[in-house]
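Standup notes
- DV: blocked on the single-chain target, sequence here:
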Amino acid sequence: MKEMSGYGKWVAGRKTKWITLLVWIVAVGVLTLVWPSVNSQVLNNAQNLPDDAQSVRAAAVAEQEFPGGSGTPALLVWHREGGLSEEDLIHIIAVYGKLEQQPLEHQNFVPPLGQLPPQALQASLSEDRSTLVTPVLFEKTADSDQLGEAVTQLKALVSAETGADPAAAEVESSELSLRVSGPVGISIDATGLFEDADVSLLIATVILVLVFLLLIYRSPVLALIPLVAVGFAYGLTSPLLGKMAQEGWITVDSQAISIMTVLLFGAGTDYCLFLISRFRQMLKVEENKGRALLSAISHSSGAIAMSGFTVVLALFALLLAKYGAYHRFAVPFSVSILIMGIASLTLVPALLAIFGRKSFFPFIPRTPQMEAERAKAKGKPVPEVKVSRKKGIGGFVVSRPWAIVGVTVVLLGVLASFSSGIRFTYDLLSSFPEDMESRQGFDLIGTQFSPGELAPAKLMIDTGGQADGGDFKVVLGGLSYVDTVSDPQTGAVNKDIIGFDIEFKDNPYSLEAMSHIPALQNTVEQALTDAGLDNPQERVWISGQTATQYDTKELGERDTDLIIPVVIGLISLLLLIYLRSLVATVYLVATVILSFFSALGLGWIIIHYVLGADAIQGAIPLYSFVFLVALGEDYNIFMISNIWKKRKVMPLKQAIAEGVNETGSVITSAGLILAGTFAVLATLPIQVLVQFGIITAIGVLLDTFVVRPFLVPAITLLLGRWSFWPGKHHEVSQPQAAEEH
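- DV (later): unblocked, structure below
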């Protein structure tokens, strides 16, 4: 492990510290002025599925053959407790008449309800006559913000027509209420949640990190240094990502930016603490603050660089994903951590060099001689040098390694066993608060009608002119999972293509409904085969939200199965190069994987049995794995590199005990801050972020308080010299005093 001792004087020397600070200020200032911020380049309706996905190909066929119904639907859910009046129906007809004459921005199609008498709408009312669902279709190219503006215009039109405000009326009241649901309503609400979350998340994260730093170091200056570094890193990351998005090289969305902010504060503060804690140690044995800082840099920079590089590579592995949301996370996360790593190794040393010992004011660390001189100058007695005789956690670990390995493995194993019972969902609606407009609308549809009406599936069949649409309707209507089937429609371009709108009995976003997509496809293909048609798999297309969700699930599972082994392989390779030990690499990776499954298990216990959720979002295992394995390895690297250095000058047992004790406080502090920043996500009103925050925070805490201080050092001691195989281990037989540097 080659030390990075030479560069310290180039970033934190007497003159170079000011140059380093100036370079950062200029770089952030110039890029902020010249390039756009990342938030200005957010695109929230980017396509998640590739063009060759079944549902995407089907959507293209639907747009060509059935253009009247190929837009993105907003479902207007009209409701009045006790029943809709004839006056309500007249108002609804008038609204649709105006929509036909003066279409909204990005409006694609509205049914000709404006030409109907009120009696004609009564046939579409729910059984208790309290609810009516009417569609408005919008262009597929419109993003969530544009759809939001159009829906705002629509609500203003409804208010002007009714003389009231149905959108603000309570659903349970006797007034006329309106809720916009369907894919358009869900998209608007999802974007609104993430935009609202972005600001509150940033404020909460900053406050949490600041409070933790003040409690740990009790120094206002030191608490601000990591925050300043993170601020500079974000100031550089934002225009850099903004420029990349502007050029079309990457796509960024609100969700990625929200989580990137958390990652920057959590991981960035950790890297700063690794250096700060070493600097404080050195100030207690070295009078010259410059030499103390250079020594701290040389001893911690290798581990910081390695930790950062590990996280960057693991996050870059998300580029292998075919699912758009995963793929879009890769570059923002990787670039932000890369820049934060550079800031930790350049800007933070420069700031520490500028403030020197005053960084720790009012609890300034001094050498025993400096303390004695200070006391003498004040006419006070010279304080005694306290020598700690406590064995600490390190001493406990080396005294009972077998017991520790047994207890921790059993504990983690029991927690991990609960992960096998996890149920997953791909239902975005279940992630919304119950008072969200689109969810209220969906609940009304599910109560008053078939849930499948929220998002019908579009089935299209190329019959080759050899099959009758009526026969297919009979077959489809006889399927147990189908609620209603429309009359066959003929394609606009290819007259041999017939289309059906199908409503399932299940929630169209549920796993049950998603399982009907391949079943429906197989049924129709078999019917085509029975009719004597060749290549039936090329003659059937299914579009709609349920088909999209099915493809999302299949693609997500494919990405998870590919990326997880790649991340494990990359991190293993980096550890092997850094530690030059195959054995250590194997057990370090194995312990972090075990802690990941334990976090999943404990997270499921909390989310399912305590919070009452029936399932977790399907994307969470992959996100959590990438973060936990990469960040968990950070702590292992920092501690193991300390032990590796010490064992060159003392017996392994002593090196482990001192290595665990020396790194204990800083890793505990870093772990609490990182877990805290992820836990902030659990305070947001979005279930997917709540679940991700809980599982990731649990994983960080398990790494911090179980794996790093107990399991890893105990395994290292039990394996002895084999821990370094095939690297060389020179046995030091005589215990020596703890190495000062």
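- Follow-up: Residues 182-217 form the longest helix (36 residues).
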